[in-house]
C-alpha cells in the first residue's frame, strides 16, 4: 500500500476509485446508469486528447496554452470546407470532402504547432508566453474567418467521428485510446520519446550530450498542435458545428489533468497511464457534481482548487520544487562534489 | 565566556540515518576557540551531514552537542546562528545584485532587530569587518562583478559581521588559484589569532595539513582517525580516507610516429581566447593547465562546438570540423565531458542506463522505433567496462557517488566510439580513491589510441596523466611542456606568474 501511494499514479488510482465510489454512493441510480456511463464516454475524449497535447509539452518543461485556439481554428477550417463544398454531396463525394476537411484541419494543427515550436526552440521564448500569445493569434484568425458565429450545416457523415459507436464503443473513446496508447508507445519505445524526457530533466545536459534540441522542441510542439486539431474535430463533430470560442474551459482542464496525472510541470517525468486515470477521475467528478446539482461555475472553482492541491501534494516528488528550503542551493557556477549522504 | 581550557564546541555520539543507511555513526570531536580543525573524508563519508547538523539544517537521530557550555540534543538553525556557528557553502549564498557593504552588513542588521535599515551603520560595519580581515574590496562594488576569491572573502566577512565564533568552510579552495589560496590561509590564521574557530572541510590534502592544528578523518560515517595535524602526511591522510594505499602510475610513453589526430590553428574568440594552435596525436594525453578565467573552458567548449569562435580552424584526421555546432563535432568523433557534471553532464533523476544510452539513440534506431533491449545491453556493457559500482542500473543516476557519476558520463561518450575526448575537470568533486581510478581509465583509453585532452587546474592530476601540458593564461597558450619532465612547483609558477 505504501509503495502504491509513493508513485503519483498510485495515489491517483486511489483518488479515482474514491471519487467513483463516492459518486456511486451519493447518486447510485443516476451515476451508475447505462445512460450516464455512455454519456461520459462520449464527453471526455475531446478534453482528454487536449490533455495528451499538454502532457508532451510539459514533459519538456514547457506548456502549450494555445491548444484550444488550435483546436477551434482547425475545426473551423474543416467546417468551412464542409459547408462550402460538401453540402448536398452524397456517397463517395461526401466521404472524399470529409477526408479532405479532416486532413486540412490536421495540417492547420501541424502548422500552428510548428509556429509554436519555432517560437520556443529557435527564438527561445518562454513556452508559457509564446503559446499564450499564439493562442490569441489562432483564436483571432478563427474569429476573422467566421465573424465570431458558429459554422453549421455539415453532411451527415461528419457526425460519425463524434457520435457513432463501433461494436458498442463510442468512436471518440476509441480515438482517445488509440492516441493515448500511441503516445505511451512513442515515449517508451522511440528515440524521440526518450529524448523528450531527457531534455525535460536537464536541457543543458541534453545540449552537451549532442541532442539536437532545436529540432526536438519543434517536433514536440508540432505533435501537440496535431493532437489539438484532432480534439477540435471531435468537438466539431459532436456539436455538429464549429465556433471560435468553443471549449474555453478546456484549457484549465487539460493543464489540471496533466498535473493531476503526475506530469512534472518542470519537465522530465510523466506517464500516460497517470493522465488517463486523471481524465477518468475528472470526468467522474464532473458528471457526479452535475447530478448533485452543483453549478458549472462552482465546478471551475473546484478544478482550480484541485490543481493547486495536487501540485502541493506532488511537490515532494518534484526535484526542483521542494516544500522546505534547502541549505545548499542548486549547484551554481561553482563545481560542487557529488551527492553526499 | 568559557574557560580557556574548555572547548567551544563538543560533539559526542552524533548519529544520523537516512533511509536505513548510516550517514554518521557515533561521531564526536571538539573544537576550541581560535583553533582550526580539518574535517577530511571522501564524498559520502558523512562530512556534509555533519556540517548540516552543526548548522541546524539536519536533525540528528542521536547526539549531544555542547556549545559554549550549553548542551543540546539537536540545534535549530536559529540556535546555531545564535551561538555564532556560520557555514560558508561552496556557492557562498550571496546576493549577486547587491553591493559588498549590503551583503556583509544586512544579515547582522536584520538579526539586530532594527526595523529600519540604516545604510550608514551597514557601511560602517562592513568597513570595520573588511579591515578586521585585512582585505581591501570596494564597499560599493556589486558582488556579481567580483572574482570568486573576493566573493568568498565577502562571505567570510558576512559571517564575521554576525559575530561568528565558529566558521565552517565547505571546500573553500576548489575555485581558487594558488595565490588566492595563500591569501585565504593567511586570513584563516588571522581569524584564529582573533579567537574565531574554523572548521575546514576539504579533500585537497596539502592545504589541510598546513593550516590546521587538528585533523579528524571520516570514512563511511565513522571517525577513523583523529590527532594533531603534525601526525599526518598526505599519504597517511589518503590511506585513512580511502582505507587503502593510493598510488598513481605515470603515463606510459607515447609511441613514436603516432599519427596526428587533431590540429587546431589560429582559434580565436573575442574576450575568451586568442590565436590558439596545437596538435594532438592518437594515443596522446594532452593537458591544458589554466586557472579559472584563463579561457580554458571557453576553449574546450569551442572545440566541441558549444561556443562559436570568431576565427580559426579545427581538423580531425585531416578533415575540417565545422565550428560552432556540437552535433557536427560529435559526429566527427569528438566527445566532451563537461566541467560541472551535475548541471551540464547528467540527467540526475533519470536512470543510469538512460544517462549512458542518450548518446546512442541514433545507432539503435530501427526505423522510427528504438531497439530498447539492444540499447540497454550496450549501456550495461559500458558500465561494466568502466567498473561503475551501481547495484541497480535502473536507479536514478543521482544515487551514485561523484566518481561513479563521472564514469557514467564517460561511458556515454565511449559508447559512441569517439576519436578523441575533451575532459574538462574530469575529477572535480571526486574522492581520492576514485580519482586514481579515473586517471587509470584515462591512461587506458590513450593506450588504445584515443586522443585525450584533459583541462584542469589540479596540477598533480595533469602530471599523473599527461604526456604534454599546455599552459593557458589570459586566453593564450604560454607554455608547451613535456608532462613527465615537469615538476608541480614549476607548473604552479608558470600558471601564476
Q: Can you put this structure into words, describing what you see?
A:
- The complex is a heterodimer of chains A (341) and B (497).
- Chain A has a single domain (15-315), classed as ABC transporter involved in vitamin B12 uptake, BtuC.
- In chain A, 71% of the residues lie in helices and 2% in strands.
- Chain A has helices at residues 2-6, 8-26, 28-31, 34-59, 67-86, 91-122, 127-146, 160-163, 171-189, 191-201, 203-208, 213-239, 250-260, 272-291, 296-314, and strands spanning 151-152, 165-166, 169-170, 241-242.
- In chain A, the strands form two sheets. In chain A, strands 1-4 form a two-stranded antiparallel sheet. Chain A has a two-stranded antiparallel ribbon with strand order 2-3.
- In chain A, a hairpin with a 2-residue loop joins strand 2 and strand 3.
- Chain A starts with a helix and ends in a 27-residue tail after the last helix.
- Chain B is an alpha/beta fold and 497 residues long.
- Chain B has 17 helices and 22 strands.
- Chain B has helices spanning 47-55, 77-82, 100-111, 119-133, 148-161, 178-193, 205-211, 234-242, 296-303, 326-332, 341-345, 352-357, 372-385, 402-414, 432-447, 459-465, 488-496, and strands at residues 9-18, 21-31, 36-40, 62-67, 70-72, 85-88, 166-170, 197-201, 214-219, 222-228, 260-269, 273-281, 285-290, 311-316, 319-320, 334-337, 365-366, 369-370, 420-424, 451-456, 468-473, 476-482.
- Chain B has a six-stranded mixed β-sheet with strand order 6-7-8-3-9-10, with helices on both faces. Chain B has a six-stranded mixed β-sheet with strand order 16-19-20-13-21-22, sandwiched between helices.
- The model of chain B has no long low-confidence stretch (mean pLDDT 85).
- Classes of the chains: A mainly alpha (341), B alpha/beta (497).
- At the A-B interface, helix 10 and helix 11 of A face helix 1, helix 10, helix 11, strand 18 and helix 14 of B.
